[in-house]
Structures are given as C-alpha cells and as structure tokens.
C-alpha cells in the first residue's frame, strides 16, 4: 500500500480529466503542478499514468512548451534501461525528437506558422536540456540526428533560440567533434556575440561557451578570433569580468596557446588593469584579478630582465671593445711627471766637440 499526500493525488486526478481543461489550465498543470508532484508519485505510476498523457500532448503545439518541462524530467530521471524500453521505443527511433526539432526549424524560418512565443519557448527548453537527451542517446544518433539541429538553431531569427543554442554547445561540447567546433561552432557563436554585444546575459553565455570549447580549438584560431572577441567586451558586469579574466589566465598558464609577453603587455593588461578600480567587484573577485595581473607582470619582468642581461653581455664582447682597449692603452696616454720628494738627480749632457777641445786646451 502506498500512501499519497493530497498533492500527488490531486495531480493524478487532474491528469485523468486533463483533456477536458482549456489550454491555459493544462499549461499551468504541466509546467508547475505536475513538476512539483512528480517526486512524490511512485515511479511505477510515472510510466503507467503520466508518460502516456505526455506522449499524446507532445503533438499539441499549444501546450508543447509546458509539456516539455515534465518530459525533460522524465529524460533526466529515467535509467538507461527505462529510456531504451519505455521512451526510446515509444519515440520510434527519435521520431518525436525529430518532430521537436522540426519545431526549431519552424522558428528559424518565419514563413512557417509555428513562429510563436510558445514554439520559441519549446525550442529554448529543448536546447537548454539537450545534454540530458544526449546522455541517453546512442553516439551515432547524436552525430547524425541531434547535432545538425543544434547547428541549425544558431540561424534562428529570435535571440532566445540563438542564446539557448550557445548554452547547449557549452553543455554538450564533449559530444561535438573538433572540426565542427572550429568550422561551425566558433563562427556561429561569434555571430551571436557580435549581434548582441551589449546584452549581458548573451555575452555571459558566449564567454561560458568559449571557456569550455577553447581547449579543442587550434592555437591560431584562439589568437586570431578569441582574443579580438575578448577585447570587444565593454560590459563592466562582475561575472563577465571574471569569466574574461579566467579565459586570459587559461591562455597564460597553458603554454600551448603561445600567449607572448608582448601580447600581454599591449593587448591584455591594458584591458584588465582598469577593472582593478571597478566598484562592482567584491573582495574575492578583486583578489583573483590582482593575482592574475601580478602573474602576468612577473612573467613580463622575468623575460625582460633576461633579455636585457643578454643584451649587456653582447655589449661586453671582445670585438665590440677592441677599439676601446686601444684608445686607453698606456702607449696612448700622457701621464704627468712622477717626482720623488727630496731626491736630487744631476742631469748629464753629452758634450760637443768644441767643449772637449776647450777642456783639453785649458789642461795644458
């Protein structure tokens, strides 16, 4: 015997007559009441009572955005066995997932009638929970079925879908091959950033995405595309600043990126130093910023000192100072006379022939 409180009992009762309710009542039930009640409902009843109704409502575009909330909870909580036997089979080899992503396509192309706030929210829900679906999906199906839809979503006409696609990439980057990250993901993420450069939430999502996928980019791509992107961020939000600092620190610590002291001195420090007086930073954020700055300055100091020492050694080489040694040799110096006190030295002169003759004549 399983004892149920009023909340799950009322939820199950409502589920029995849900088809008699209007769209607003059904939506409120699926996205709020049912979500709150499900943890208290026995798991056996999930599959017997709740899942069949959710399956039928997936095709109802009016309540799809609300239905997806408990559907994603099912995906998250289901074991692999439950997913394979009860969900995947029911979806007929991802037929329902195809339908859901067809909805995303409809959002991308405004001429389709599904471009409504409800369908947009449904697409956002799918993208933000894409990692849950991928966890239960076979790798080959992820590559052929799910990833193309993720990439298509970047071309959506609504910023909500584009932003959700950026979040999805950050959540599932391990499932994306490196070539796709380099050729598709980064260019599309950059486009989202450039179109919404003043939107704090989107900039935050873009930085989160870049921070997670940059290890799988080529060094040249990071230097040529990520650094200029970071330089264009002008939002003084503390969370955005900290994400920017973490990316710079990662570039600095990981020597494979080849961040030179010249780049740090001319492109990085001028962008980070002004944030040291940003009043929005708390104590921990300020300390982390200062620690990164000090590490970079110390690296610049070490290299410059070593460079200057080498320059000084080359200036002291024999070839360079051969002329100096010649100029200051004793052969070319005019030293003052050296006198010893109280010492008398008689100077002797060589006599001429006449002097000798006079001496001889006088002697006679």
Automatic annotation (TrEMBL):
<dbReference type="InterPro" id="IPR016024">
    <property type="entry name" value="ARM-type_fold"/>
</dbReference>
<protein>
    <submittedName>
        <fullName>GM25196</fullName>
    </submittedName>
</protein>
<dbReference type="InterPro" id="IPR051177">
    <property type="entry name" value="CIK-Related_Protein"/>
</dbReference>
<dbReference type="InterPro" id="IPR011989">
    <property type="entry name" value="ARM-like"/>
</dbReference>
């Amino acid at each position: 015997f399983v004892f149920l409180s009023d909340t799950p009992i009322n939820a199950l009762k409502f589920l029995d007559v849900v088809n008699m309710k209007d769209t607003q009542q059904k939506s409120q039930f699926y996205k709020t009441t049912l979500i709150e009640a499900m943890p208290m409902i026995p798991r056996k009843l999930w599959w017997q009572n709740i899942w069949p109704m959710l399956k039928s409502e997936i095709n109802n575009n009016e309540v799809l955005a609300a239905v997806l909330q408990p559907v994603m909870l099912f995906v998250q909580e289901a074991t692999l066995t439950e997913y394979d036997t009860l969900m995947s089979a029911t979806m007929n080899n991802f037929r329902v997932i195809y339908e859901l992503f067809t909805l995303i396509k409809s959002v991308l192309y405004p001429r389709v009638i599904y471009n409504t706030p409800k369908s947009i929210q449904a697409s956002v829900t799918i993208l933000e929970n894409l990692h849950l679906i991928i966890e239960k999906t076979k790798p080959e199906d992820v590559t052929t079925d799910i990833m193309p839809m993720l990439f298509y979503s970047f071309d959506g006409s609504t910023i909500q879908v584009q932003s959700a696609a950026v979040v999805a990439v950050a959540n599932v980057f391990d499932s994306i091959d490196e070539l796709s990250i380099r050729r598709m993901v980064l260019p599309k993420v950059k486009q989202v950033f450039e179109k919404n450069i003043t939107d704090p939430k989107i900039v935050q999502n873009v930085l989160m995405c870049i921070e997670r996928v940059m290890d799988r980019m080529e060094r040249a791509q990071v230097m040529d595309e990520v650094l200029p992107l970071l330089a264009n961020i002008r939002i003084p939000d503390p969370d955005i600043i900290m994400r920017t600092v973490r990316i710079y620190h990662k570039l600095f610590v990981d020597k494979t990126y080849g961040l030179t002291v010249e780049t740090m001195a001319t492109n990085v420090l001028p962008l980070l130093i002004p944030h040291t007086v940003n009043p929005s930073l708390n104590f921990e954020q300020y300390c982390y910023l200062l620690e990164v700055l000090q590490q970079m300055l110390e690296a610049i100091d070490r290299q410059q000192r070593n460079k200057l020492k080498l320059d000084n050694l080359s200036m002291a080489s024999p070839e360079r100072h051969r002329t100096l040694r010649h100029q200051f040799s004793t052969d070319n110096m005019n030293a003052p006379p050296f006198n010893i006190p109280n010492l008398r030295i008689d100077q002797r002169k060589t006599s001429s022939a006449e002097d000798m003759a006079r001496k001889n004549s006088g002697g006679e």
